[in-house]
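tl;dr need the bound structure. longer version: we got a ligand (nicotinamide-adenine-dinucleotide) that a collaborator sent over and nobodys looked at where it sits. i said id run it. heres the input, straight from their email, havent touched it
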Amino acid sequence: MSRVVITEFMDEPAVARLRAAHDVLYDPKLVDDAVRLHAEAASADVLIVRNRTQVRGELLASMKRCRVVGRLGVGLDNIDVPGCEARGMRVIPAAGANALSVAEYVIGTAMLLLRGAYQSTADVAAGRWPRPALSNGREVGGRTLGLIGFGSIGQLTARLAQGLGMRVMAYDAMLDADHPAYAASGVSPAGLDALIAQADVISLHVPLVDSTRGLFGAGRIAAMKRGAVLVNTARGGIVDELAVAEALRSGHLGGAALDVFDAEPLAAAPHFTGCPNLVLTPHIAGVTAESNERVSSLIADKVLEALNG
Ligand code: NAD
């Protein structure tokens, strides 16, 4: 019987399956108590985390028994993967399991932002009825979606967008233009500058790594079409929040949805106060009832497999 320590929320039926075979500590608040977290991680054969537990430095050094780190989601920027591997640990992400949730968030926010819907909430509530100002909303059909990153989420987002009649182009630094994923999906591969210049909606789907940190700053936002919409569900460090706020205020950006931030949870952020047509969500694009079940079930399967193997 192995000791499995789960530091953030996981779907209960998946926890129960692990519990049936192993000694499980499930405490979704463990991530908030550094002293207990270190003590429990030291006794763990398996550590299961989401995105808040920082598996690096002192915590990693304390994980003397650990063989497997399960990540309830994708994006490994909170885990020192080389450090884990050097200590003989396997790092297992829930690849693809929350892709549909993120893709639906991208399409849903893009559609509402193109209509200016988030601009009018306060006005309508206050009885101002801004119908003339919002009567030039735009349809997504016939518009161009530019995807930066064409992995699991990028590819699923492309399919949903095509179903709505959008033309889709994608830039992915790791895929050659003749990669079969493009031909198979009918998505046009593009250079980053060409994509930025042509897209009506830009959505980011790359991991946060050295080469993507700061990828989308003031210069690239300025190069977007006037009135275009930006959606960031990838990671905060990839998009410059201040530049987004300024471009919304100046009217250059037509709208933006930000689900991820430089620092999470986002503290008071006066730069966003009063920004028009802005959706801010607390890192929930990939978290729905369905994806939580899929992600948790996949990680439980893989952990059980790793412990049996
Ligand atoms: P994925 O690994 O399937 O795809 C990532 C793609 O990015 C790959 O095709 C890769 O080739 C490409 N890429 C890597 N470096 C690049 C670069 N420098 N420039 C352009 N492309 C590059 O991952 P995914 O499942 O599609 O997820 C993408 C990211 O979305 C994750 O890393 C994570 O940070 C984020 N995410 C956020 C949420 C949320 O709730 N907000 C949920 C899931 C994932």
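gonna send this back to them w/ a short note. The CA atoms of residues 98 and 295 lie 7 Å apart.
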